[in-house]
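Quick start: what a row looks like.
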Amino acid sequence: MTRQRIIGLVALAALIVAGLLTHGFGLLGKSEAELKLYGNVDIRQVELGFRVGGRIESMAFDEGVRVPAGATLARLDARPLTDVLATNQAQIALADADLAKSRNGNRAQDIARATQAVAEQRALYDKARTDFERRSALVESGAVSQALVTASRADFEASRARLRSAEDALSLQRAGARSEDVAAAVARRQSALAQANRARTDINDTALLAPESGVVLTRAREPGAIVQPGETVYTLTIDRPMRVRAYVAQTALSRISPGMAVLVTADGNPKTYHGTIGFISPTAEFTPKSVQTESLRADLVYRLRINVSDPDDALRQGQPVTIKVPAARTAAR
């Protein structure tokens, strides 16, 4: 091989290397097929407490323990509430008896007694009327005095009033309770039932259940403590499904869309996790200071949520992560 040929090959190789290093001497842009984003594993916590107050009877889990959804975390002493329920049940029984009495009407014996009272008052009325009429006929002849006739009239009118009163009492006995009284008895029974249902709800709320599976972060109280309604007893972290909160610059927003596959890595963790873009915020915001990227932080960004499909205990809430989107679309020039 001649010297000139060797020099030519060396020059050609140098030109190729220079072109690669300078991306075609500036004529070719850097490949943007892969998009890199930054974010943090979402912190999802729930403060758990009883809806009713009372004394804690038991607590089943310590900090750091993973619990399944629906697990009973703690219980209150339910005795005060069961006593309330017993009182309410007695009130229901009393209301039932009162309602039955109103609907069934009066007893036959009561009606018979009222009928007998009417008969007695009618007999007295008939005697008083006869005495009054007889004495009125004799007053002109002087056989009886006017004072006696006046007294007979008073007895007659009084017996007539007593007869009407007895007849009204008999009518009430036969008619039974008024519709208003029945409605009031029904309302009292419904009120007693509502109180009992509330007591049962309170008893059910003496058990503190895990709303979702997760890990106990904080055990804030201990058995024997008196707690108020809503006071925190446990703090539960919810890490399944695991979500990553990331941000994309507005200039790269058009390169991604929901459903795209991503790769998630964390510092010091050799594993690469897989996930998909599940949500992209429709509104822009300024980059949070907690997000560390390679560009300036003053630009507007859009928040997005990434669902990690294969998480493990090495990926913790709040941990900063790097997200790569291999199938990101090429940015428009």
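That is the whole record. Residues 157 and 308 are 99 Å apart (CA to CA). The first strand starts at residue 35 and ends at 41.
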